[in-house]
Design brief:
about 350 residues; mainly alpha; 17 helices
Amino acid sequence: MHEQRINTPQSINAPQVNAPQVNDAPNNATQDDDKTHDRNNGRNKAGKSKRPPSLIRRLCRYQAERFPLASHMPLIFAFIFGVLSFCDALSPIDANNKSNALTPTHAVVLCIIVATAFFQLRISDEFKNFETDLRHRPHRPLPRGLVTRQELGATAAALMILQGSLTALNASSALPLLLALWIYGGLMWVEFFVGDWLKTRTSLVVFMRAMIMPLIALFVLSWSDRAFSCLYSVPAIATLAFANGLILEIGRKIRTPADERTGIRTYSFLWGLKRAIHTWAASIMLSATALIFLGQLAGATVITIGRGLTLPSIVAAIAIYAILRRPAPGRGKLIAAASGLWTLVSFILLGVIRFAL
């Protein structure tokens, strides 16, 4: 946040009068000076009355830049909908012939908790990348002073209180998994206390970051009253969440050689473009395999799942072909877009399997 500097005008001294003037005409010069002085005082008062933006406004601006809800909330909603709807599909019908889906209120509360959990991960990255951002990305909110590390840390702590309170009031049985999520998120925050050692082990870092997705999936499942009815599907659900976590994590850090920047550790730089693309494609195959397995558990055929994955598969294939054939500047964004589309469609497909039978 840049402070506004106000140039204080120099004082204007009125002309000294040594003797009464015979001329009764008004002194135009003195009146003009007085008017100028009044206008300058008005501007000074207006400038002094301006206050810096409040913390809430600055945090909202930070969120808009670093965690835009328009791109994140559809994925979060699809994630929660897919996991809970699939579990509900495998659950028995109660005596009143009603399903065991969450109430709308609980669904909204769960979306808030999961969204703030991902927001905390973003804050964690700000702390870990602070020195790099100072040198190579000073335009980002934290390096340029929009918010401070102390303010972000306090925000993350306040979100923990909010998450704990909402969980205790709506699904107290999920508190142990929320605690596990906090612990794992805290370890990610401090890079498992071996940050320097992890810098040379990129594959392990990717694995650790993607593991947050299965943990969140288990937390979401714990909100269902009939979660035990689908315990046998939990490994496959966790695998799907993990694979989609890999897709998002790797996909957001793939750049063409022309887009690589000094000091920025992308996976295309650390692994090479081809290896990064191949690893990303393997993650998509793992996600598709887990989804097909889950579909068969619910009674869907491979053809049904394949039809649902047609569009994201075509988009992913086009992105791979385009970036490998001609890695022109900006084509890394194709991989990021295909990552979001695949994740969105796969979770929605998981949730609507029950309606396709």
